[in-house]
User: Which sequence fits this backbone?
């Protein structure tokens, strides 16, 4: 671990030193980063394999006597593993990507910030005490802000960076308060003691839960704390966006798991329900917003919110189970959410990398301007399709696996709890089903509109396939999607080892079905359900073969133009992304509150319009009704304070007079 | 003659020569030389203290204990770097022909005089001498406020002097009352006002008189330190003073004033227990932080921004002392140290930016300075990160320590308010820095094209200062740490 | 080893069997509809001749289409076939129940839908897009209701694996719990929605603007179209069988003897026919709903399913 | 006897302070300040007698020369040099001001009761007067617009402090006393210079116009 961080440090220095020569700097920063990540990965794997934590000290801050130490517990190791599994491909990708997408003058900044971010994330996951955690947490925030503001000429990215900073600082404030209250209560700083769960009890516990929920929720981007996410993630360079969406949010998740779920003693049922509720809302709203985006990176960002929601749902189920003292069930639910952390990281990373390639090739982020890219960038297209299918939770790919486990957890939760609470579980399941189906719709749209049919703009028509250095990582991640999808058992088994280390969880002793399959057992029922994707692959291939054989005449097909109602087929006759999501937009108009205005420009008579302009937009509910008023209020209050310093010496003197009189009255024991 | 007297003599002499005149090169070298020697001497004095001695002179009128040693070293350091930067700063204006003879005399004469006054404060053990020394700092700094001789600088100077003198009157009353409360137990002669004697007499002082005295003294010296609601002179004065003097005021004078506040605080803690003056400090500190916050959010002027930030920081230190307990006091002193190291960077870089654009008004400077003055802007961002208490820099650790002391001392409400204020402050700073540094480059059609940034003395000084501040975040030299510990003992241990 | 052979054999037999029957079902429903409208209707073997004709035809493809367009029908077909292997038909055991249960089934069908919808966007024809959009929309709305409906019976039987589930139901014997009827009603609506029947969709329409499923496959011709048609027929049969399994498993063969199989076959045919009649009636007595009325219909079924769950377990 | 004299002088100083609040002519105010300082000197002298502390005589002498004569003379000179009309226009009209000052006096006296009855039983009166004067002086600073009047107000505050020093503590250590007086002189000089520069720039010494620096 130390080695890894030393490497990071060296890399940072190297990157800073070679700032003037962009190429050298790029290779130094990214190469070093890959090396460091590899080292950390080995540490993580080692911990997970052995099941024993690795501790150590990074630095002693002599001045304040604060010791920055780390302790890689199995849980930390899991998150570290996820982090590095993405970090390495991202760095590799960046070697090709930065060359074109990041101006030479900024390479050093980006390279350095990237390494700082990764280092900070590593420390966040491995931190063993309060101060070091907050230290890394802050560092993470700052470096991310720098990355978001990379393109600071753009007003949008400045705004995004600022919004991000503000939101995360409010969050951090909650964390500082929470942790310091804990440490004041225990008189210690080490997580081992702080998060032993015996620190506080009574209402204070709920207050702390609220603080931590807010603090980590902001980073995780759960609704309604999400507003920064769809601004910040797209603003950064795509490979960074991949990192942010895939891993940065998991820092928030990590906190929620480590502190909210397992750090404050046996969770209260209401906490679990809060998690499930927030999770469901985030999932559905997230995917609904994603559905209507035409900026591909914003679309992916919103889908991140959706997946965080799914993760929260599983976690919440686990907490409810813990509250009911059902260790086995809780273990499964938590495992489900942790599994989804991994899977989401993989396919979201993949999708962002793909999007990055596309944006670079077409020079636009609007999918309405793309189209027909599959023929021009076949490999990117293929990988993106794989990612799209994975995120839509289709079998044989990894998305399905984790959602399957989540479903199981929810159903078993229903089967093994009593009272009205139990109805929450199947409802959660139904909502999860809705989410998945909507996600499928969303990504049919995303892939179909941007990669299929005719190019919708000259830029798209002129797109060229990405550099091999950028394709490699995508291929690797796509492959990972398939492997994790076909052998979910292996992942689940690993997770049993991880969950073993968490208090109150009782993972099954003998994991059945080996690497290929997963089984779910409920209390009282054996083999509630199991799944072995590989088996499913067989009839699939069989059916495919049959289809090909049956339709063999189709192999020699005649080509003919698409029928466009007798007209000529152009990009303008194609179905647009907006049109695609129109039905859902109308069905869920309660959520979107869409506003549309149509203006008809006619010169002779209104019945023969020259031009019809149509604009439709969805209302940014949270921004408009929560955040904007808040910000305005603060500024107005600040403005009001101006009168204190209005420039009149007499006023200033009167303050002193007043203070003097008041204090004299006070000392005189009142009048 | 003992070493600490030399420490005072040198800046005084330097001031004298600087005031007389002579060729530019000579003046510059004399000032830098003098201040360097002063710094070296202050280190030597601190060394004596660490070696176990307690340097003193004039019948303990001057006496260097842990607290004095710490403040002495910090102030001497600030004096040195601001002196060097000042030379660079003046050169820039000389090149642009903005400097008159009066300015030269004032600058080279008053800079070391100011340093002298501050050092005198930090060493004096006699409350009377202390008061006189503080008065001297005021008189010395007034002329820096009027330095540029603009309408606004006169206005600022008047306000500064009025509030300052009023504060000093209060401080004097406080001193008199302290003296009165201990009458009969303090003996005769100058020594009667010695802090050490007051400390001995503390337990038997007349409580009411003492209380009144403490209150007035705290308000008085608090005015000099810029605690709200007596802070109102600060933005005006800082906004008008040239940056090098600004640093001396924002760090040197601030530390000195805090030193006085602490001396009073210690006496009252010894006599009445820490709750009384501690509570007062906590209230004033919290008030300062809360007052500073909104003005940082809506600030329109670079230097005033820094002024409010210094109000915030003095507030933070006061809060730390107010929380009390060893942790709080230690945190506050640590904060003082790191603030002393970090603040000059922001003043220097801000000063450079202001000079390049010949204005410190955000609207006049316009945004996107990064493309025009990368070094200064970079340093400014860096210093902003430092003084907002973000990791990996020192103020993060000190603020954490103070916050922790607050929660441990179960001042939950106060600490939470403080924390919230800190967050808003960060947001405000982030916004201001963002709009200043980032953004598209100013269009070439613009007439107000700034001076090109050059690698001159000023720039180098700021770079070095930044380097020191950054290194110090991770490594404070052992002796300095020992000083902080000793100072903590003085303030809390009552040793 | 033997059980591998057994599984393989059963899988192939059942798949082939269902593939063979599927076109008949569609025709039967057509026929019954025609009769209700006092028309003659097509001959019973119409479905087969359509398929053979289509399969023999030359295939024409859009110039703008890519490999996705080609893959679409094939994956759709394969998914339908794969799905059948998870469903018990005659014997109280699904051929591939080792692979997984209800969730996998739903997932597999979703896979097919995904493939077809993507392919529909590939030609650049506005109708393809329209069809895809509407199909995905309705599917998305149907999904939660479907899941809830399935959960109800799964939780009742204590398993999500259709094989285990059916055996469980058979052991419990016929239950007349009201929740079953509610769930059945709910799932029937879903059946209609998913198989593109009136009132949700009109399989017989020739007006593009009202099409959903048809619009999606508008561009396909010849063998490609044949695959799509065949697969959707299979899918319909599959859904019906699923309903039968969940709510009326009586008569299934619990052990493999010729007699039992024959009985099971007759029983199955009867039950499916019953459902077919129900579908026909629904189609003939309702007018097609506007697209934006569909959510209401589906939400009704969602409500039914949830009600079923509630009254069953509270 | 001495005690009565002390209280008498102290009361006299308070009266001068009230008169300062009460009337408008600039020169009169300055003279009033002179008188006030003289009374302060008397207090010092009385204490010198009663305590038999010779250095208090020096203090008294210093006070008379510096505050009683030098400073008033200097201020008048400044006024003459910049020749502005000698009216004072306060923010608050006289009756209101007097009322406020009464309140402040009450506060001052109320606090003074907390003090120990010093050797001569006078101290709490002296303290009361001193605190009241302090507050009144501060009040004058707040309400007076002209730079000079503000300086006078400040000096009144200073006098109040000195009154405590000589009246209650029977004198601070001499060196300190000397240094302090010296500083006061310096301050006044600087203030004078500033006033001249202000008037030279704004053609007025109405400091309420100095309000450009906001926010």
Assistant:
């Amino acid at each position: 671990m130390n080695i890894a961080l030393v490497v990071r440090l060296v890399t940072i220095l190297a990157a800073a030193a070679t700032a003037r020569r962009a190429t050298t700097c790029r290779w130094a920063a990214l190469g070093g980063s890959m090396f460091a990540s590899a080292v950390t990965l080995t540490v993580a794997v080692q911990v997970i394999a052995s099941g024993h934590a690795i501790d150590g000290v990074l630095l002693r801050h002599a001045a304040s006597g604060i010791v920055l130490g780390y302790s890689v517990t199995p849980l930390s190791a899991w998150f570290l593993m996820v982090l590095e599994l993405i970090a390495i491909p991202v760095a590799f990708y960046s070697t090709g990507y930065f060359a074109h997408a990041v101006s030479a003058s900024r390479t050093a900044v980006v390279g350095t910030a990237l390494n700082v971010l990764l280092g900070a994330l590593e420390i966040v996951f491995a931190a063993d005490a309060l101060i070091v955690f907050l230290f890394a947490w802050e560092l993470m925030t700052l470096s991310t802000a720098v990355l978001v503001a990379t393109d600071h000429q753009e007003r949008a990215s400045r705004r995004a960076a600022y919004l991000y900073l503000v939101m995360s600082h409010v969050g951090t404030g909650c964390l500082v308060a929470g942790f310091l209250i804990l440490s004041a209560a225990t008189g210690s700083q080490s997580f081992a003691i702080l998060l032993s769960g015996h620190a506080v009890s009574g209402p204070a516990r709920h207050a702390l839960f609220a603080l931590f929920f807010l603090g980590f929720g902001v980073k995780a981007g759960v609704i309604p704390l999400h507003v920064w996410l769809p601004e910040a993630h797209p603003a950064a360079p795509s490979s960074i966006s991949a990192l942010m969406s895939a891993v940065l949010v998991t820092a928030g998740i990590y906190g929620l798991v480590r502190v909210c779920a397992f750090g404050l003693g046996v969770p209260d049922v209401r906490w679990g329900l809060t998690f499930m509720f927030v999770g469901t809302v985030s999932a559905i709203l997230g995917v609904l917003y994603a559905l209507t985006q035409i900026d591909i990176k914003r679309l992916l960002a919103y889908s991140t919110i959706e997946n965080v929601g799914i993760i929260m749902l599983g976690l919440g189920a686990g907490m409810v189970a813990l509250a009911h003292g059902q260790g086995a069930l809780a273990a499964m639910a938590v495992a489900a959410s942790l599994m989804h952390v991994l899977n989401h990281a993989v396919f979201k990373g993949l999708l962002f990398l793909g999007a990055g390639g596309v944006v670079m090739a077409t020079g636009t982020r609007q999918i309405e301007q793309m189209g027909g890219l599959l023929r021009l960038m076949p490999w990117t297209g293929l990988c993106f399709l794989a990612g799209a299918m994975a995120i839509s939770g289709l079998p044989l790919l990894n998305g399905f696996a984790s959602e399957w486990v989540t479903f199981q957890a929810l159903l078993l939760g229903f089967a093994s709890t009593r009272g009205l609470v139990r109805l929450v579980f199947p409802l959660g399941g139904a909502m999860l089903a809705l989410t998945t189906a909507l996600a499928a719709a969303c990504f049919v749209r995303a892939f179909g509109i941007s990669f299929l049919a005719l190019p919708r703009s000259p830029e798209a028509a002129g797109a060229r396939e990405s550099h091999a250095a950028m394709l490699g990582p995508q291929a690797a991640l796509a492959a990972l999607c398939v492997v994790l999808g076909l052998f979910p058992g292996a992942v689940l088994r690993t997770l049993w080892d991880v969950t073993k280390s968490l208090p109150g969880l009782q993972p099954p002793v003998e994991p059945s079905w080996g690497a290929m399959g997963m089984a779910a057992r409920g209390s009282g029922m054996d083999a509630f359900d199991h799944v072995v994707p590989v088996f499913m692959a067989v009839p699939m291939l069989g059916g495919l073969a049959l289809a090909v054989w049956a339709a063999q005449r189709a192999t020699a097909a005649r080509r003919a133009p698409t029928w466009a109602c007798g007209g000529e087929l152009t990009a303008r006759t194609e179905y647009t992304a907006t049109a695609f999501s129109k039905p859902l937009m109308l069905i869920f108009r309660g959520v979107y509150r869409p506003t549309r205005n149509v203006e008809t420009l006619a010169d002779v008579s209104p019945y023969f319009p020259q031009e019809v302009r149509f604009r439709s937009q969805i209302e940014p509910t949270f921004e408009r009704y929560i955040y904007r008023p808040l910000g305005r209020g603060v500024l107005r209050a600040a403005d009001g304070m101006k009168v204190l310093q209005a420039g009149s010496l007499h006023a200033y003197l009167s303050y002193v007079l007043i203070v003097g009189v008041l204090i004299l009255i006070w000392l005189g024991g009142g009048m | 003659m003992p070493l600490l007297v030399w420490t005072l003599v040198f800046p005084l002499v330097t001031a004298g020569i600087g005031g007389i005149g002579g060729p530019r090169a000579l003046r510059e070298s004399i000032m830098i030389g003098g201040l360097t020697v002063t710094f070296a001497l202050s280190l030597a004095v601190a060394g004596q203290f660490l070696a176990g001695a307690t340097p003193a002179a004039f019948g303990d009128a001057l006496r260097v204990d842990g607290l004095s040693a710490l403040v002495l070293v910090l102030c001497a350091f600030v004096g040195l770097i601001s002196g060097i930067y000042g030379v660079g700063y003046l050169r820039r204006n000389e090149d642009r022909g903005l400097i008159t003879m009066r300015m030269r005399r004032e600058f080279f004469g008053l800079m070391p005089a100011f340093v002298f006054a501050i050092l005198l404060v930090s060493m004096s053990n006699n409350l009377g001498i202390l008061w006189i020394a503080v008065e001297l700092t005021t008189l010395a700094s007034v002329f820096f406020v009027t330095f540029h001789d603009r309408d606004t600088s006169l206005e600022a100077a008047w306000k500064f002097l009025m509030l300052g003198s009023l504060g000093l009157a209060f401080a004097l009353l406080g001193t008199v009352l302290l003296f009165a409360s201990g009458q009969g137990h303090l003996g005769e002669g100058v020594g009667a006002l010695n802090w050490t004697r007051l400390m001995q007499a503390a337990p038997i002082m007349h409580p009411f008189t003492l209380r009144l005295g403490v209150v007035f003294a705290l308000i008085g010296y608090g005015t000099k330190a810029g605690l709200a609601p007596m802070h109102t002179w600060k933005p005006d004065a800082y906004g008008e003073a040239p940056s090098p003097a600004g640093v001396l005021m924002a760090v040197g004078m601030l530390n000195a004033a805090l030193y006085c506040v602490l001396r009073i605080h210690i006496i009252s803690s010894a006599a009445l227990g820490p709750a009384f003056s501690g509570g007062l400090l906590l209230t004033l500190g919290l008030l300062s932080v809360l007052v500073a916050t909104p003005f940082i959010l809506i600030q329109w002027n670079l230097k005033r921004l820094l002024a409010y930030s210094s109000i915030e920081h003095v507030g933070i230190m006061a809060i730390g002392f107010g929380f009390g307990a060893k942790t709080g006091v230690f945190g506050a002193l640590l904060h003082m140290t790191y603030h002393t190291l970090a603040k000059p960077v922001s003043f220097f870089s801000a000063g450079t930016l202001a000079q390049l654009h010949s204005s410190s008004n955000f609207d006049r400077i316009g945004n996107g300075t990064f493309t025009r003055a990368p070094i200064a802007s970079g340093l400014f961002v860096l210093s902003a990160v430092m003084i907002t208490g973000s990791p990996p820099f020192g103020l993060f650790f000190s603020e954490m320590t103070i916050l922790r002391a607050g929660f441990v001392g179960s001042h939950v409400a106060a600490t939470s308010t403080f924390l919230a204020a800190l967050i808003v402050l960060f947001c405000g700073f982030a916004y201001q820095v963002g709009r200043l540094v980032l953004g598209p480059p100013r269009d070439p059609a613009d007439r107000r094209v700034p001076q090109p940034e050059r690698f001159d003395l000023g720039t180098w000084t700021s770079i070095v200062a930044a380097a020191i501040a950054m290194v110090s975040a991770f490594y404070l030299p052992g002796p300095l740490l020992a000083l902080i510990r000793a100072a903590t003992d003085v303030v809390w241990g009552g040793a | 080893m033997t059980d591998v052979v057994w599984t393989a054999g059963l899988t192939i037999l059942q798949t082939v069997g269902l593939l063979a029957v599927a076109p008949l079902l569609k025709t039967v429903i057509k026929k019954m509809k025609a009769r209700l409208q006092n028309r003659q209707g097509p001959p019973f073997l119409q479905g087969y001749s359509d398929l053979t004709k289509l399969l023999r035809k030359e295939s024409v493809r859009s110039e703008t289409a890519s490999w996705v367009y080609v893959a679409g029908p094939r994956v759709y077909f394969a998914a339908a076939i794969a799905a059948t292997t998870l469903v018990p038909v005659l014997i109280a055991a699904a051929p591939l129940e080792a692979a997984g249960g209800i969730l996998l089934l739903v997932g597999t069908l979703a896979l097919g839908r995904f493939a077809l919808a993507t392919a529909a966007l590939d030609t650049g024809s506005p109708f393809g897009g329209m069809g895809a959009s509407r199909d995905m929309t309705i599917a998305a709305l149907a999904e939660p209701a479907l899941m809830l409906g399935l959960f109800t019976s799964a939780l009742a039987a204590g398993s999500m694996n259709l094989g285990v589930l059916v055996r469980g139901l058979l052991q419990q014997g016929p239950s007349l719990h009201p929740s079953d009827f509610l769930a059945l009603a709910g799932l029937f609506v879903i059946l209609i929605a998913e198989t593109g029947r009136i009132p949700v969709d009109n399989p017989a329409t020739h007006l593009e603007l009202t099409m959903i499923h048809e619009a999606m496959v508008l561009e396909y011709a010849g063998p490609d179209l044949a695959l799509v048609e065949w697969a959707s027929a299979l899918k319909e049969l599959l859904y019906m069988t699923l309903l039968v399994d969940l709510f009326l498993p009586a008569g299934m063969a619990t052990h493999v003897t010729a007699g039992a199989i024959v009985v099971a076959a007759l029983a199955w045919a009867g039950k499916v026919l019953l459902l077919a009649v129900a579908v026909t009636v629904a189609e003939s007595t309702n007018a097609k709903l506007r697209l934006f009325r569909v959510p209401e219909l589906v939400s009704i079924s969602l409500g039914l399913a949830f009600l079923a769950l509630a009254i069953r377990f509270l | 006897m001495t005690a009565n004299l002390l209280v008498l002088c102290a009361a006299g100083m308070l009266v001068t302070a009230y008169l300062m609040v009460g009337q408008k002519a600039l020169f009169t105010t300055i003279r009033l300040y002179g008188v006030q300082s003289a009374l302060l000197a008397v207090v010092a002298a009385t204490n010198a007698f009663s305590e038999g502390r010779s250095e208090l005589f020096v203090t008294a002498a210093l006070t008379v020369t510096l505050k009683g004569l030098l400073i008033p003379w200097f201020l008048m000179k400044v006024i003459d040099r910049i020749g502005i009309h000698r009216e004072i226009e306060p923010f608050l009209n006289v009756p209101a001001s007097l009322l406020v000052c009464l309140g402040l006096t009450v506060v001052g006296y109320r606090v003074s009761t907390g003090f120990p009855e010093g050797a001569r039983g006078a101290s709490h009166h002296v303290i009361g007067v001193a605190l009241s004067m302090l507050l009144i002086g501060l009040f004058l600073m707040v309400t007076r617009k002209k730079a000079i009047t503000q300086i006078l107000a400040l000096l009144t505050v200073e006098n109040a402090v000195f009154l405590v020093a000589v009246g209650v503590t029977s004198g601070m250590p001499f060196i300190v006393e000397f240094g302090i007086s010296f500083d006061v002189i310096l301050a006044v000089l600087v203030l004078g210079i500033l006033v001249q520069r202000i008037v030279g720039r704004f053609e007025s010494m109405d400091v309420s116009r100095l309000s450009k620096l906001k926010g």
Remarks:
- Residues 327-362 of chain A form the longest helix (36 residues).
- Chain A is about 70% helix and 5% strand.
- Chain A touches chain B through 52 residues (CB under 8 Å).
- The longest strand of chain A covers residues 54-61.
